[in-house]
Amino acid sequence: MSTKRDANHPVIVDGSTLRLIPTPKPRRIPLKTLAQVRNEMSRKYRQLDAGEVDSQDCSRAVYILAQIGRIIEVADLEERILQLEGGNNGIT
Q1: Which of 32, 69, 73, 80 would be 37's cystine partner, CB 3.0–4.6 Å?
Q2: What's the pLDDT at 19?
């Protein structure tokens, strides 16, 4: 007969039978280009479609990714404008 374990009943575990399970390293996602941001957005959509993530969590992640994409665009435009102006940072 199996007994139900709960917090009120202590469990004795033999230390020699325990094994350590390594925790996985957090996934480092490269987001330096718009293509990388687009790929991550697509991955999030596929996870949502497969039911692997909650829609609210997916929406938050995609919103953040969209903001990162906008920053990449603005930084790229800023760099191009500075190159067109001769690299003098707008100082005349």
Answers
A1: 69
A2: 76
